[in-house]
Design goal:
Radius of gyration: 23 Å
CATH topology of the largest domain: Methylamine Dehydrogenase, Chain H
CATH class of the largest domain: Mainly Beta
CATH superfamily of the largest domain: YVTN repeat-like/Quinoprotein amine dehydrogenase
Distance between the termini: 90 Å
Length: 249
């Protein structure tokens, strides 16, 4: 069960009849019953209250409910046996535990796509976040353990992915968990400047370097530093041209 942030509605997953009941908390009455996937096991409401996300254990997907119209707007495929779902307090990510898949799926709720799959133990059950959003806690049902996930930044793409060694190229970084970024580095050199546009986008100006080649663009936040991958490769591909003049006699 989950409450809308304004407290006016409660959402209850009904595993036996593949639906979600919507309760008006002022009258304590069911005002809607919404068909979802097979064996819904958990529900969470987005921090803005506009959408509810339902983990459907039996159909390996997540139903997205428009809380204004009480209708399912889309269905997102995740891992095997989604069991729990929770929202990171900062940003727009939902995290779903997959009981049979031994992993947590991170969903970008702006696009309703899975942006990361995090391996975590076996037979995963519930998931919850620390209030600052820096850590997720995941219960392993059979192992009797709780796994702690550090929710750090991840760079998924650069545009453009190359530029001259003199620097000055404005590069757009897309990824996740950029909120609160304190640094952007091109290799060992700090970006000439950067702006955090959203939790999923940073605009950075490439610094000058004295050599050609590929460097990793890494983002630092209070949650950690992004891990190197092919997605963050930036290619310094052109050296400055030096013009010389000669006296011709």
């Amino acid at each position: 069960m989950a409450l809308r942030p304004d407290g006016t509605r409660a959402y209850v997953a009904n595993a036996d009849n593949n639906s979600v009941s919507v309760i008006d908390t002022a009258t304590n009455s069911v005002v809607a019953t919404i068909p979802v996937g097979n064996l819904p096991s958990a529900v969470a409401v987005r921090p803005d209250g506009a959408r509810a996300y339902v983990a459907n254990f039996g159909s390996d997907n997540v139903s997205v409910i428009d809380t204004a119209t009480n209708t399912v707007t889309t269905t997102i495929a995740v891992g095997n046996g989604p069991r729990g779902v929770a929202f990171r307090p900062v940003g727009t990510r939902a995290y779903v535990t997959n009981y049979g898949g031994s992993a947590v799926s991170a969903i970008d709720t702006a696009t309703n796509t899975v942006t990361a799959t995090i391996p975590v133990g076996t037979f995963l059950h519930g998931v919850a976040f620390r209030p600052d959003g820096a850590r997720a806690y995941v219960v392993s049902y059979v192992a009797y353990t709780v796994s702690v996930i550090a929710i750090g930044p991840q760079v998924a793409a650069l545009s453009p992915g190359n530029g001259p060694a003199v620097g000055g190229t404005v590069v757009t970084l897309t990824g996740i968990n950029f909120t609160g970024a304190t640094a952007v580095n091109f290799g060992a050199i700090p970006a000439a400047s950067f702006t955090v546009n959203s939790d999923t986008q940073i605009t950075a100006t490439a610094p000058a370097t004295g050599s050609l080649g590929i460097v990793d663009v890494r983002v630092t936040t209070p949650d950690g530093i992004s891990v190197n991958s092919a997605a963050d490769d930036y290619n310094y591909d052109t050296l400055p041209v030096t013009l010389q003049s000669f006296d011709v006699k």
